[in-house]
Write a structure and sequence with these properties.
Layout: H1 2-52, H2 57-82, H3 87-104, H4 106-121, E1 129-132, E2 135-142, E3 146-150, E4 156-160, H5 161-165, E5 170-171, E6 177-186, H6 192-205, E7 216-222, E8 227-236, H7 240-258
Antiparallel strand pairs: 1-2, 1-5, 2-3, 3-4, 6-8, 7-8
Length: about 270
């Protein structure tokens, strides 16, 4: 008899709970289902849109994860609100905790922000030769936290993204063409027109020098020991250093062949006796 009474009381308690909280439980289940579906479909749609626009995969993964996490957090807050939990105070606690974590990790977060900006605006790409934050090298990788460079003598440089984004970036590989600038000097006694003709002929004979824009040779300075010419030649970006080295050598050989002197620095000293 006592067992039947306890069973009836238990059934009454269950019925009371279902009657009181049934709609809340049902609503919470619906919110969880909808939130789970949205947290999967929205990042997938974002992934497709950003992929079509050519956004870097690292940024895409980061944003998709951030969006999914945000949707799940909102879903949990809505479920708690369904049961009468005061979410405003909970949000305030989470905000305070987020602020404390942000202040503790502000250096790391600034690197993440710099990495996102670098990956979105793409001022440098893997394979480009750049100068940034006081260092120069070929870009090997651009991540969310650091940028990796490799110097011409194969030294690895790891730069925090905040310092890269916060500094002037000089990208030598951005354009397809570059201009080779040389300063060539001849003796005052030599024929300037003849020297210019020799240099023009040497430039024209090199297939790497571009015809448009046309090469330029001009008298730039009457220096202490020489008449200096400014030589400007356009070429493909990949030919810059080989062409610069080869032209320097060819100019010297051409001047020697034509009897044109490249003077070394000298001073005239006047002696006063007595």
């Amino acid at each position: 008899m006592m067992e039947n009474l306890n069973l009836e009381e238990l059934m009454q308690d269950v019925l009371a709970i279902v009657t009181t909280y049934g709609l809340e439980v049902l609503g919470a289940i619906v919110i969880l289902i909808i939130g789970n579906i949205v947290s999967k479909r929205v990042p997938k749609t974002l992934l497709n849109v950003l992929t079509k626009r050519g956004v870097d995969p690292t940024v895409i993964n980061f944003l998709c994860s951030l969006v999914r996490m945000s949707i799940l957090i909102v879903t949990i807050l809505l479920v708690l609100a369904q049961f009468g939990v005061q979410t405003a105070s909970l949000i305030a606690v989470l905000g305070a905790a987020g602020l404390a974590i942000g202040l503790a990790l502000q250096g790391t977060l600034s690197n993440v922000a710099g990495g996102v900006m670098l990956l979105f605006f793409r001022p440098l790409r893997v394979g480009d030769y750049v100068e940034a934050a006081g260092h120069g090298g070929t870009v090997k990788a651009v991540g969310l936290f650091v940028t990796e460079l490799s110097t011409p003598d194969n030294v690895q440089i790891i730069l925090p993204n905040a310092s890269v984004w916060g500094s002037a970036i000089k990208n030598f590989s951005f354009h397809d063409t570059r201009r080779v600038d040389l300063i060539m000097g001849i003796a005052y006694e030599d024929d300037m027109d003849k020297a210019m003709s020799v240099m023009h002929a040497i430039i024209a004979a090199d297939a790497r020098s571009m015809k448009d824009p046309a090469p330029m040779i001009a008298v730039a300075e009457l220096a202490d020991s020489s008449v200096n010419f400014t030589v400007r030649v356009w070429c493909k970006g990949g030919d810059y250093w080989p062409l610069k080295f080869d032209l320097t050598k060819a100019f010297k050989e051409g001047f020697d062949k034509e009897g044109i002197t490249i003077p070394f620095p000298q001073q005239v000293v006047h002696r006063v006796d007595g």
